[in-house]
Amino acid sequence: MTKKRKAHTSYASFKEVADMLLELQETAPNDYSVTQNYSVFTHSPAFFKHFLGNRMPVRADCARVAVVREGWFSPTINGHTYHCKAGELLFVNWGAVIEDDQFSDDLAMDGYMLTEEYVNLMFGGNLPSIFKSTTLCFKATLTAEENNTFCKILQTLLTVKLLGPHTESTTTNALFVAINLFTQKLYESDILLPSVQWSRNKKLTEAFTQLVNVHAKTQHSIGFYAKQLCVSAHHLSMVVRKETGSTAKEWIDRATVTAIQVELKYSEKTLEQISHDFSFPSLSTFCKFFKRNTGTTAFTYRAE
Fold this sequence. Notes:
- The protein is α+β, with helices and mostly antiparallel strands and 304 residues long.
- The protein has helices spanning 14-27, 49-52, 116-122, 129-132, 144-159, 165-190, 200-215, 222-228, 233-244, 248-266, 271-277, 283-294, 298-303, and strands at residues 10-12, 32-34, 38-44, 58-60, 62-70, 72-73, 76-77, 80-81, 84-85, 88-92, 98-100, 108-115, 137-141.
- It contains 13 helices and 13 strands.
- The longest helix has 26 residues, at 165-190.
């Protein structure tokens, strides 16, 4: 019997998932590294199973990459089921919607999670294509050498926390750039060619989300993206909602907020300067937009 889907996609924050990993870290401190921007895990059980529950379909605000070490898991993401067994990698970007998930009792996996804000900072806004396609999910089968490379980088990420704050930050960023480019190469070699078989709506949605990543800093209206894609704003909104479970405006606002968060945390610009750079008509409009979408003020976020 087919499961009846919920009418609305729920939302899961990176912090919620990280809090679960912190609990696991207490019992196996050498297998986990959890910060406000990323998490790394090895030999991990299916921590998502206790979290997803009845919330599905659910979309998280972080990218996840996992390689199965033992057992299997079989999530349904964006309407497609990915059965992953030992030696297979699954990449799930922050826009993908998890509709169902099944696990074996002996599942153990290695991987990492990254916030969208951290990925933008890491690559200076010049994102690899796996992150530009915000609903992207793909599976790749690793060779023994690829699996070994992936695991070695993860192990190094787990040990650099012993080097001290400054060295750790620089080294961690470099290692995450390396492992993400490694994942990008897997995508290019194993996945890109079959993408020609995507449906017209899927291609339109992917083109829209990539445009949003490029232009959300200054272009906040659906009309701009519809014109670029040669469709009506109404048609674009309907397709994006059907393909992702979120409205086109939600995608634009979320990308804008993420870019603002990077500026607030990692630049010395005043709020007035950031408001101007992001093409808001006034500082008041900028502040209201940020608080409406994050639940906190820009000033408070910068001070955290």
